[in-house]
């Protein structure tokens, strides 16, 4: 079976992960959990998202109280960064060389504009898609309680 690569353009929000985590309180806890689970790190070609997924895929976040989850996230995100993967062996090491998760920006797509898929084995070349119908407005009322968010265009690519 081949693999699928998907590229998606969305409008969404961007926030420093530390700014989001430090805002966790009893009132906004469910919303922030939703942002954490739906978002991903802006990491270009690093492995921050692999580490991030391991940090948030934790029952303590899903079922814990806001104080414990906040403390857990602060500690984990300050101690974890990215992976260094050897091209010549299967060796994988955690590294803070490019900074820790706490200092990375989290992206959350809110409104998808366009996406394209590519199927196959080791395909090279150009793959693209277009649309003539799009609306660049986005409703962010849901996130008005969260400080320091920015509205951004997001280009995400997923291979699997």
Low-confidence stretches: none
Q: Strand order, biggest sheet?
A: 2-5-1-6
Mean pLDDT: 90
Overall morphology: flat
Largest sheet: 4 strands, antiparallel
Beta percentage is 25-35%
Q: What order do the helices and strands follow?
A: EHHEHHHEEEE
Ends distance:
11 Å
What's the number of helices? 5
Quaternary structure: single chain
- Output the radius of gyration: 17 Å
Instruction: Count up the domains.
Output: 1
Helix content: 25-40%
Helix/strand class: alpha+beta
> How many β-strands, per DSSP?
6
Describe this structure in words.
The structure is a single chain. The chain has helices at residues 17-22, 29-38, 48-56, 59-63, 66-79; strands spanning 3-16, 40-41, 82-85, 92-95, 105-120, 150-159. It is α+β, with helices and mostly antiparallel strands. The chain has one domain. The strands form two sheets. A four-stranded antiparallel beta sheet has the order 2-5-1-6. It has a two-stranded antiparallel ribbon with strand order 3-4. It is flat.
Tag the structure with descriptive keywords.
about 30% strand; about 160 residues; alpha+beta; two-stranded antiparallel sheet; four-stranded antiparallel sheet
Give the SSE layout.
Layout: E1 3-16, H1 17-22, H2 29-38, E2 40-41, H3 48-56, H4 59-63, H5 66-79, E3 82-85, E4 92-95, E5 105-120, E6 150-159
Task: Summarize it.
The protein is α+β, with helices and mostly antiparallel strands. The protein has helices spanning 17-22, 29-38, 48-56, 59-63, 66-79; strands at 3-16, 40-41, 82-85, 92-95, 105-120, 150-159.
């Amino acid at each position: 079976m081949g693999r699928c690569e998907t590229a998606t353009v969305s409008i969404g929000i961007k926030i420093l992960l530390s700014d989001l985590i430090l805002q966790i309180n009893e009132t906004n806890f469910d919303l922030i959990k939703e942002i954490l689970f739906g978002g991903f790190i802006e990491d270009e070609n690093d492995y921050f998202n692999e580490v991030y997924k391991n940090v948030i895929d934790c029952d303590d976040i899903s079922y814990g109280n806001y104080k414990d989850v906040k403390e857990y996230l602060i500690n984990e995100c300050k101690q974890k960064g990215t992976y260094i993967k050897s091209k010549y062996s299967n060796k994988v090491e955690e590294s803070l060389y490019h900074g820790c998760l706490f200092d990375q920006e989290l992206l959350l797509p809110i409104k998808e504009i366009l996406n394209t898929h590519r199927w196959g084995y080791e395909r090279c070349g150009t793959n693209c898609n277009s649309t003539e119908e799009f609306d660049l407005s986005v409703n962010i009322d849901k996130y008005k309680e969260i400080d320091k968010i920015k509205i951004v265009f997001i280009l995400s690519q997923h291979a699997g």
